[in-house]
Structure formats: structure tokens, C-alpha cells
Amino acid sequence: MKISFVLNGKKKTTDVEPDMRVIDLLREHLHLTGTKEGCGSGECGACAILVDGESRLSCLMLAAQLEGKKITTIEGLSKGKRLHPVQKAFVENGAVQCGFCTPGMVMTSVDILSRNPDPSRDEIREGISGNLCRCTGYQKIVDAIEYAAKDKNR
Amino acid sequence: MAREVLLPRTLDDLWEIFHAEPELHLYAGGTDLLVKLRSQPPLPSGSPSPLVCLERIDGLKGIYEEDGLVCIRACTTHSEIMKDPVIRQHFPVLTKVLSLLGSPHIRNMGTIGGNICTASPAGDTLTPLYTLGASVEARSCDSGRLMPLKSFILGPGSVALQQGEILYGIWIKKDHDFNIHHFEKIGQRKALAIAIASMAALIKLSGEGTIEKIRLAWGSVAPTVAVSHTIEDALTGKPLTENVLRDAMPLVTDALSPIDDVRASAGYRRRVATNLLLRLLQYKDA
Ligand SMILES: Cc1cc2nc3c(=O)[nH]c(=O)nc-3n(C[C@H](O)[C@H](O)[C@H](O)COP(=O)(O)OP(=O)(O)OC[C@H]3O[C@@H](n4cnc5c(N)ncnc54)[C@H](O)[C@@H]3O)c2cc1C
Ligand code: FES
Ligand code: FES
Predict the structure, then answer these.
(1) Quick check: B155 and B256 in contact, CB under 8 A?
(2) Of ligand 1's atoms, which has the minimum distance to the CA of residue B25?
């Protein structure tokens, strides 16, 4: 089945099986391996992407659902070599250890900040409550999102 | 062999698909169905029934009012319902439940209709909807029927939909005089926790602290939602005090029929679900 969508700002038409999961389409078919699969069942948030600007779990979506949509993955955030403010904040605040949860955390943070540009720490914690990180203890991730919010508001 | 995935945009398109492919399988947010499909063995070859995704049918999304009733269309996501001012104002018990359902991602994708049709004993939207006395509307290409949610839920994983029917919406009476809306869920953590036990309560409490009217419903402690008129009757007309609640606790224990599973033992469930009644004390001086 041919599906057309906008991927990281570029129009894309691709021929795939309609019942392929979006995570597999991205990783195996389009070789965008930034998006990670942790659990494959909605529990870890590692596979989060933005669909029309809102967070979605790519392990619980089928390729056909992308038709006509605007998709952003972690590969689409930076402008050339310039990191997105949220990516920069993660790097500068030491919010990345092994990095496996990071793409999902960053995409989720972008979603949180687009809806609430100045979240409290509690709102940030609530916002990332569907994203698991086994390394950082979350503290630095919350710091990074707070920092990104201030950075944007400056 | 790949499975066909269809995305109708209107109800008429959906009825046409039903006509051509009676064996189709529906999904809305996919947060229950896609997890389930993945845990099943791959489909035998041949031509598997198509999956039909309802997420693009505008006529199945949104919330509207008619004749003093509020209709939540089945494919409205949990996030959308939580944001809705009418729901917030009139049914805070529902907003509270949804804020504890899954995670932000799951709430962005999962729908109220999907939660109801999954008919899990732990389905979080069921207890508040039981206390609110909600009805559901099923529709097929040429008819619609309305029934109490209680009669729609037949048992774990089973609802009263016939071939060619979908869940169209949930109807709730807007005017009610309950001034206390309570929900609590016991899980292993705050987010992404399937309930070990939960309780929803609506109370009309008088200025003097008398329980004038009460509706209670428990989740995860019986094959479907547990309700008991005996308990409600025993509490009605009594003051909201610890002794009154304690006296009713044995009735709660009798009304539940929990099971052992990976999340908790039946004994623990019974105990904790009974104790949840005492939480209503927090409204004593409300
Ligand atoms: C990580 C995770 C956490 C979760 N946490 C919770 C939780 O805390 N509490 C809770 O209650 N649930 C939870 N769930 C379960 C699930 O997210 C919810 O039940 C959700 O509301 C299901 O909605 P959906 O639209 O995604 O359903 P789908 O998967 O799309 O559909 C579920 C079933 O309902 C049928 N269906 C859907 N819509 C209709 C319709 N309009 N007419 C007829 N049939 C229909 C489908 O055919 C399918 O069989 C969780 C799931 C995951 C993956
Ligand atoms: S891989 Fe999608 S939520 Fe874990
Ligand atoms: S940095 Fe390792 S899982 Fe989060």
C-alpha cells in the first residue's frame, strides 16, 4: 500500500504493508533508528514521536494511520547542526546517560512545552510519567525540561 | 500476509465497509487492540479480516449536549474528555479517573469507547460511569439503540454489541445533585498502573453532614464493576462518620468477588477495596 505523509518537514511517499507498526516503518524501512523500541506495548515511551504536533506511541500505531499526517521524529528536531532547545538542555544538564530513553523523552518534552510553555516541576513529572528511564533517576531530566522552558522564554 | 487497514472518514463509509466485509475488526486508539494482537500468534495465511480504524470518523468524536443530557462520542480520546469544560464542571469524578488512566501518551491515543468495549474488570472509566448512571448508544447502518451501561457490559471482555453494530456514544444526565465526586485507585505506582482495586463514589451531603444520597462502584474486585444497593441503602440518611462507614464495611466485603492474579491476591484486594470506603471521611467537613 502506498502512503504519503510529511516526515520531518519533507513529503514522503512509501510503499509498505498497511499493518506494519509505525516503529518498524521508521526503523526498518526508512532507517531512522533514532526512535527506540523499549517495550512494544505502550508502557515505556521510548518510541514516542509527534503526529500533527502531539505525542503518539509509534509501537501502537499502524503505518496506514500516517496517511496525510505530519510526523516528527528525533531526527527532525535539530536545524542542521543547531540542536533544538530541548536537545541542548538535555546535553547541558546531564540528562542523558545510556541514551535509550532520550529520543522518547525529548519528543515528549517538546510536546509538553508546546502545550504548557512554563510548566511547574510537578507538571513536568506528570508530563513524562509515561516515559521510563532506567539510568538517570529522572532528576536531571526534569532539570533539563525546566531549563529548556526558561531558555525558550528568555 | 499483510492485513488490510481501512480508515473510513464518515459513518456512511464505515457502513459500506461493514456491508462488504462483515468479519472486520474495529479499533479506535489501538492501545488495547494492538497490544493484544501482538501477544497473539501470527495470523494463519489466507486472507485475514481487515482492521478498521475509527480515528478519522469525525462523527464519532467530540462531546455535545441534547435535552439535558451530555453525549460523549465513543472515539473521543481521554485527553480530549479531560479538557472539556462541561465534563469538568458536571462530572469531576470522570475527569479525576481519566487523569489517572495510563499515561499522557495513552490518554492522547486511547478512547472512552475503547475502554468500555474492552470491558476489563480493571477498566477505569466504568466505575464513574456506573455511579453516574450512564447509558450507551449502539448504532448500526439502519438503527440505533440505547441501553444502560450496566446491561451493555456482559462480563470480562464481553459487551452487548451485535454483528454490524458499533458503540456510538455514552449519554449522561447533566443535572444531578451530588456535591462530592470521589475516585481512588490502588495500583503499584501512580502512572501506568492497572488498578488492583478502585472505588468511585458520588455523595449528596447535606449542610449538616448527612448522607442524603450515595452511589458507589468498585473496580478490579469482581468480573465487572461491583455495585450494591444494600450498602447504598445502609448509608443513606446517616451522618458521614467513621462509625457509620465502619458499620457498612462488612457489607462491602460481601459484595465483592475478587480474584488472585499477578498484581495482587484476592484477600488483599478484598481488604483494600473495603478500606477504600473509609476514605470518604475526608469529606466529613467539606
Ligand atoms: C501502557 C498502557 C496503560 C494502560 N493503562 C490503563 C489504565 O490505567 N486504565 C484503564 O482502564 N485502561 C488502561 N489501558 C488500556 C487502554 O488504554 C484503554 O482501555 C483505552 O481506553 C482503550 O481505548 P482504545 O481506543 O485505545 O481501544 P482500542 O484498542 O482501539 O479498542 C479496544 C477494543 O474496543 C473495540 N472498540 C473500540 N472502539 C469501539 C467502538 N466505537 N465501537 C465498537 N467497538 C469498539 C475494539 O474493537 C477493540 O476490541 C492501558 C493500556 C496501555 C497500553
Ligand atoms: S516501545 Fe512504545 S511505549 Fe515502549
Ligand atoms: S538514560 Fe538510560 S534509560 Fe534513560
Answers:
(1) no
(2) 47
- Which atom of ligand 2 sits closest to the CA of residue A37? 1
Q: What local confidence, expressed as pLDDT, does residue B194 receive?
A: 85
pLDDT reading at A146 higher than 70 = yes
- Does residue B286 carry a pLDDT above 70? no
Ligand 3 pocket: which residues have CB below 6 Å?
A 96-102, 133-136
Kindly report, residue by residue over B217-248, the tens digit of the pLDDT: 999 999 999 999 999 999 999 999 999 999 99
pLDDT in tens, B142-154: 999 999 999 999 9
- Is residue A8 within 8 Å of residue A76, measured between CB atoms? yes
What ipTM, to 2 d.p.?
0.96
Structurally, chain A folds into a number of domains equal to 2
Q: Would you call A23 an interface residue with chain B, using a CB distance cutoff of 8 Å? A: no
Cβ distance of B109 and A57 shorter than 8 Å: yes
Q: What is the dihedral of CA B130, B135, B136, B140, to 10 degrees?
A: 150
Euclidean distance between CA atoms B53 and B194, whole angstroms? 25
Q: In this structure, are B210 and B254 located in the same domain?
A: yes
Count the Cβ atoms, other than its own, within 10 Å of residue A56.
24
Contacts A–B by Cβ distance under 8 A: 80
> Which of B142, B173, B204 is where one domain is finished?
B173
